[in-house]
Amino acid sequence: MTGTCVILDIGGVLEFTPETGWVQRWEEKLRLPPGTVDERMGGVWQAGSVGAISERDVHEQAATRLGLDAADAEAFMADLWAEYLGTPNEELIAYVDGLRGRCRLGILSNSFVGARERETARYGFDRLVERIVYSHEIGVGKPDARAFGTACAQLGVRPEDCLFVDDVAVNVEAARAAGMQGHLFVDNAATIARITAHVERGRAGA
Asked: Which NCBIfam families match (predicted)?
């Protein structure tokens, strides 16, 4: 196998994750002013994204900070995960699956404690790519250069041999600044064309 590598984001790329309005519904149910949930939970969301607290801690903090009983705390977390996991981008997933053996494959995701277990169970991303690098497991997220360096190191590839695909422009620019090639995900057609060109160039130069 060549050193040519493709690293993809999850939310907004391999998963479609539109806003479901779950936070607003909870604010209405709890009779809280708009923005209260994020105001009270913002620090918890940030800590969970870099693995500074456990999933159990998140659950307990939600109950405490929002005044939820046990049943409501479970329902609150279920709504969080429903939006987080979204639905699969089946066309792109199938395309990436067909790349196995033709190039190195990885995932780099700004994540949340509990994401690996849930995404593995629902989508099997651990079988799709060689390495999944989650922000909550390495303690740093995109666009920090360390996140891109960790992904390349775990895959054993050079940044210049990697194409990084993300739906957030600042992350794509950060990947380029880290020495990688970058593609901003807008739709499947353009993304598949860009990945195909990258892989074919890599194989031609091997």
From this structure: HAD-SF-IA-v1 (TIGR01549), HAD-SF-IA-v3 (TIGR01509)
